[in-house]
Amino acid sequence: MRRSVAAALALTIASAGCSKKEEPKPATQTTEMTAGTAAASNKPRKVDQVPLPTGIDLAHPPADAIRTKDGMIFKSLVDGDGPAPGKNDTVVINYTGWRPSGETMYSTRSRGKPSPMPLANTAIGFVEALTMMKKGGRAIFWLPPEIGYKGTPQGTPETLTFEVELLDIKPAPPIPADVAAPPADARKTDKGVFIKTLTPGTGKDKLRYYDLATISYTAWDETGRMFDSTETRGQPRPSAPYRETPGLESALTQMVVGERARVWIPGPLNQPSLSAPAGMACYEITLNSITPQHAPPPAPKDLAAPPKDAQKTALGVFYKVIKPGTGTQHPTATDQIKVHYTEWTTDGRLVDSTVVRDKPAEFVVSAVIKGWTDGLQVMTAGEQARFWIPEELAYKGQPGRPAGMMVFDVELIEIKAAAPAPKAGGPAPGHP
Predict the structure, then answer these.
(1) What is the pTM assigned to this prediction?
(2) What are the chain's domains?
(3) How far apart, in whole angstroms, are the C-alpha atoms of residue 205 and residue 424?
């Protein structure tokens, strides 16, 4: 249990951020970190045992301590003379945590340097305590498991005690006054997204759904909690609208280069996403640049269901030959192949396309989703085919992945030499 608690604490002080691969991905860039999340694979770290502050008894908090409605007990040891942090700010702190037994489970003294803590992605008890402090202050507080360490996925819920020194505050972008709902002067897109231009752009042409862009943004839920921000990370990110959530795609394709807009996206249009809230999300977005891409093939008319003349593999993938191949060899699961492909959902939304990037994909047949591995092996070099892949052979309801049946148009350009087969059942090339 000691290791899981210490690992959970380490996560509460980790800075939020995301690393981008070459291909843009949906905006699922920040994972919420709470004191109930344990990194069980982390190796135990030796923690120096730190004595409690003079006069402090873990079992009997001071009588003059503040007791909040959430059950936290807070006692200021040194009052700060600087500003108080906001709930989305990143603070820099020195701190030590003790278990009820008096054992020191984590301390920045063991690291030799203070820790940054993004409050937007931190246990609510820590947020409550830190926002009661001012820069330069020092306090001790008791966090019950309901708002601190919940004991999941490992360990036993415990009331933990922390001594914190607030050294610095890195302010987050301000929360818009209208974060919860769009104002009357916001315009509505045909998808139901509301958008209001804050700074007019310098470009003339709107971003097309298949172009590549760079964007800077901050995003909040309807309570004002920041759940993602490239601006606090200081790093714009690449974006192809069709690979964002439907709501972001709708908003981005209304913008021109240089424009900054405030956008309100209803919950259903935020999905699939690993970080966006279930309710209304508010974004402030700047469209920094546009790199034109090739237009994808038009969506087929038979996306919704395979036609009657489609064939079916033993696993249950439906397929139809669009153009016969020139060879006779079929790829095996261990072969390396080169393909062009375009992928859609059954309602016509583009998911991925090598045609847009004008760059064929090369991979081992068994390295992709199970249904595509199955379908590719019925093709021959030069053939073009369409596959209807049921969800159980596609992304299987994985969070952040498209749901339902997927439709692929595939051109098998070349079958290369066999390669060692990786683990089967991986994602499609466009979904690393």
Answers:
(1) 0.79
(2) 2-170 (3.10.50.40), 187-291 (3.10.50.40), 311-418 (3.10.50.40)
(3) 43
